[in-house]
């Protein structure tokens, strides 16, 4: 029998890698732009390409993991993710980098569609929240070390060192999986994989996310309409399948599952691009070096690390919906700290805003995950984890898409630099008001699920 603490250790290490890379890359974007001659819009695609690929494959990968084995999917995903990290480090053009970021996204989908599911399979319900709290803390540890270590690597070595660093971490995870995990988890063993449904889902997600990213181009609205129509067809198609890639009843008949996922979507849409914008603001508008910017940005994930295990333990004892609703309210407050930001905004205000935002995200994340995983049967664990991860990535994509829309309207395809920092600040302020509105709406969607226990 597998030791649950061993599974927790592997999940913690695995959960560290992607957040570390994402936050480190935020600090490295100006260096990448200079080295690979990226425009303002192309800078956004370095992040967006990863999110797009992961969003397309998360739910199909989760369903495949429930049928064929969560350990198999997790292992294959980390192998792809590690090789893609090496390829990103060796990239010599914007096209190469973005293409390998797509491969990273596919590997990440296989990891995050299974890691939490395996953890939920081996931990009893009364200890699940605590374990998820430690996983959240590892995610936020990656976020906290990312800006600092990423800034150090960019300043003293190269932005490529960020990707190289993922290679030994990936090798360590694969070694632990092969030597310590001698079990397999198949919640839906013997069922068939709905390949047609998976294709419809992936293409619909691609159209929706790519459409968001290209607004206000005329073609973007056609893609958005096609994506929405595709999802409507997908849900109808799946409702007629005996063994669908996604069971629509989870959204239609499970109040906790539906509202918890909707709230996650709003939470990540409201918070993800704040760090991206702050990184650019601190370097272009305030003249900080990448390492100095990283040291400033570290406050948000530090509070996440400190509070996530405590929030997870609370969700084992009390209604996780109440705790995550409080976290959503604090997240909204943290976003509002950046309203009206300008060239003379106090660094004390920026640090306070990051700290409050970090506290809100910590109180939201692991309790919300606990609510989702506790609301479904064991056979749906991977699909549930993948759906929640999809909401996270869709929210992050929407967050970045909104920023890209603002960039395209107010900056265009000019390179970002100190000379157009006024336009950057204008984009930042408009984004903050939109993010605050989404976070405020999330408070109510979170409270809505309390009418049914997790």
Write up what this structure looks like.
- This protein is 81% helix and 0% strand.
- It is mostly helical and 454 residues long.
- The protein has one domain (4-180, 196-451): MFS general substrate transporter like domains (Growth Hormone, Chain: A, Up-down Bundle), CATH 1.20.1250.20.
- The mean pLDDT is 84.
Quick structural gist:
The protein is an all-alpha fold.
Write the topology of this structure.
Elements: H1 4-36, H2 40-68, H3 70-89, H4 94-112, H5 115-122, H6 125-156, H7 160-180, H8 195-214, H9 218-239, H10 249-252, H11 255-285, H12 290-297, H13 299-317, H14 320-336, H15 347-373, H16 381-410, H17 421-448
Task: Offer a few descriptive terms.
single chain; 454 residues; mainly alpha; Growth Hormone, Chain: A; 81% helix; 0% strand
CA(first)-CA(last) distance: 28 Å
Give the amount of beta strand, in percent: under 5%
| Biggest pleated sheet | none
Oligomer type: single chain
């Amino acid at each position: 029998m597998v030791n649950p603490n061993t599974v927790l250790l592997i999940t913690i290490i695995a959960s560290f890698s992607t957040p570390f890379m994402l936050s480190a890359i935020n600090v490295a974007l100006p260096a990448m732009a200079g080295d690979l001659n990226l425009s303002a819009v192309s800078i956004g695609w370095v992040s967006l390409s990863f999110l797009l690929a992961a969003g397309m494959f998360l739910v199909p990968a989760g369903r495949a993991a429930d049928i064929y084995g969560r350990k198999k999917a997790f292992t294959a995903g980390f192998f792809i993710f590690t090789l893609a990290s090496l390829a990103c480090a060796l990239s010599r053009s914007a096209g190469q980098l973005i293409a390998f970021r797509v491969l990273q996204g596919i590997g990440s989908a296989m990891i995050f569609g299974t890691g939490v599911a395996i953890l939920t399979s081996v931990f009893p319900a009364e200890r699940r929240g605590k374990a998820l709290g430690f996983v959240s803390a590892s995610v936020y540890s990656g976020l906290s070390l990312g800006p600092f270590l990423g800034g150090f690597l960019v300043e003293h070595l190269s932005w490529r060192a960020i990707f190289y660093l993922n290679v030994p971490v990936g090798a360590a995870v694969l070694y632990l999986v092969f030597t310590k995990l001698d079990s397999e988890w198949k919640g839906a063993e013997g069922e068939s994989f709905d390949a047609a449904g998976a294709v419809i889902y992936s293409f619909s997600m691609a159209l929706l996310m790519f459409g968001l990213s290209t607004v206000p181009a005329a073609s973007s609205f056609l893609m958005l309409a096609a994506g929405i129509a595709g999802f409507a067809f997908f849900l109808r198609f799946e409702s007629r399948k005996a063994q669908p890639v996604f069971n629509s009843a989870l959204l239609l008949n499970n109040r906790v599952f539906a509202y918890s996922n909707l709230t996650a979507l709003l939470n990540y849409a409201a918070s993800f691009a704040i760090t991206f914008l702050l990184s650019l603001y601190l370097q272009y508008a305030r003249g900080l070096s990448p390492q100095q910017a990283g040291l400033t940005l570290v406050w948000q994930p530090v509070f996440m690390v400190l509070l996530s295990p405590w929030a997870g333990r609370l969700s084992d004892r009390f209604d996780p919906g109440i705790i995550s609703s409080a976290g959503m309210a604090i997240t909204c407050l943290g976003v509002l700290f950046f309203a009206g930001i300008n060239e003379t905004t106090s660094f004390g205000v920026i640090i306070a805003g990051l700290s409050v935002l970090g506290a809100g995200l910590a109180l939201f994340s692991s309790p919300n995950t606990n609510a989702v995983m506790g609301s479904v049967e064991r056979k749906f664990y991977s699909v549930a984890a993948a759906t929640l991860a999809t909401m996270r990535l869709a929210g992050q994509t929407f967050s970045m898409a909104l920023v890209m829309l603002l960039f395209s309207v107010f900056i265009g395809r000019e390179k970002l630099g100190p000379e157009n920092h006024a336009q950057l600040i204008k984009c930042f302020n408009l984004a903050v008001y939109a993010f605050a509105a989404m976070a405020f709406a999330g408070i109510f969607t979170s409270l809505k699920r309390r009418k049914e226990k997790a």
